[in-house]
Design brief:
CATH class of the largest domain: Mainly Beta
Largest sheet: 8 strands, mixed
Helix content: 10-25%
Strand content: 35-45%
Distance between the termini: 95 Å
Oligomer: single chain
Mean pLDDT: 76
CATH topology of the largest domain: Immunoglobulin-like
CATH architecture of the largest domain: Sandwich
Low-confidence stretches: 1-25, 289-300, 323-332
Number of domains: 3
Order of helices and strands: EEEHEEEEHEEEEEEEEEEEEH
Radius of gyration: 29 Å
Number of helices: 3
Number of strands: 19
């Protein structure tokens, strides 16, 4: 009986279009090579198979598989199921299938590769005519199985892959959009000040969001940044995530004028707030209202109205008790 064991250094690793290998200085690598012209400025679509297809539509993409080992290997190429929930891309075990992987085929199921060589593989997606609109997920895997000499017939299974995000529906590519919600000033467990922006994916496609944070008008006129701001993972449709930027722990508490700029492909959003960092860990301070902001103006007007009502009520009460000989002071 042969036992299958997947090496943790390779199993489940997704390789991006940067061409980095899955493990160390040698191994089996895979990367996307044909990025659509309208997606060249989108790092997410440039790293993974991202497409919008109508029911009954099809698309072909090309991946490059490399063997940088010193041995001749047989590489199995196949699609398999995946999920994407709450920013986590989940990988199915083995060759488990779902709808998208079932619609996907490869030009060669097994490649015999010499040391130091590469090979191109065509990935074809054929969407059935009758299918509900939704975004679906899968992986195109390149897998190497190596029998060992250990008693019991143990087999080591290493695999690397490219993620697939395919949206099914009429029309062209679904619109991408997101909004920046609240900004807060926090302090990490190590005591470093952190600015956190809540980001909401309000569009109809998965987003990979990055950007910068700049601080201005600090104590003594200090300025900081811009420094990188990134989400921990991609943001699925309808979900929200935290984009954080960590700063030097010697930074003064504030107040600071925080300016966050985020982008995903061609979509850009900004948010500005006055923040003050908490003195202790575990405390989050929301941004303070701007002196000329509409919120402050509304609050001032409401307070003025309440004071006027209270004064009028006091005058009326004294008139009733004092026979009308009380003359109120005029309010300006």
């Amino acid at each position: 009986m042969r036992i299958l064991i997947a090496l943790s250094v390779l199993a489940g690793i997704i390789v991006s279009a940067s061409g980095a290998l899955a493990a160390g200085s040698s191994g089996i690598g895979i990367r996307l090579v044909d990025v659509p012209a309208d997606s060249r400025n989108d790092p997410f679509a440039g790293s993974y198979i991202v497409d919008r297809l109508a029911p009954g539509g099809s698309v072909r993409r090309v991946v490059e598989i490399s063997n940088t080992t010193r041995s001749t290997v047989s590489v199995a190429v196949y699609p398999a199921a995946a999920t994407f929930r709450r920013g986590t891309f989940g990988l199915a075990a083995g060759h488990d299938q779902n709808e998208l992987s079932g619609w996907t085929s490869v030009s060669r199921k097994v490649l015999r590769m010499q040391p130091g060589t590469t090979a191109l593989e065509t990935v074809t997606i054929n969407v059935p005519e009758e299918v509900s609109p939704a975004e679906r997920y899968a992986v195109v895997w390149a897998e190497v199985s190596t029998p060992t000499s250990a008693a019991g017939g143990v087999t080591l299974v290493n695999r690397v892959g490219v993620r697939m995000y395919v949206s099914v529906g009429p029309g062209g590519a679904p619109p991408a959009n997101f909004a920046i919600g609240s900004l807060s000033a926090e302090r990490s467990e190590t005591g470093a000040p952190v600015v956190v922006a809540i980001v909401h994916n309000t569009g109809r496609r998965t987003l990979d969001i990055s950007g910068t944070l700049a601080l201005a008008k600090g104590p003594g006129g200090l300025r900081v940044g811009p420094i990188p701001v990134t989400l921990e993972s991609a943001l699925a449709v309808g979900e929200s995530g935290s984009a954080a930027a960590q700063l030097d722990e010697r930074l003064p508490l504030g107040p600071w004028r925080a300016h966050v700029r985020l982008r995903s492909g061609s979509v850009h959003r900004t948010a500005v707030a006055t923040i003050t960092f908490p003195e202790y860990t575990g405390v989050a301070l929301p941004p303070s209202a701007e002196p000329n902001s509409p919120i402050v103006a509304v609050v001032v007007i409401l307070l003025f109205v309440l004071l006027a009502v209270a004064a009028t009520a006091l005058v009326y009460s004294r008139r009733r008790k004092g026979g009308g000989d009380f003359e109120p002071t005029a309010m300006v």
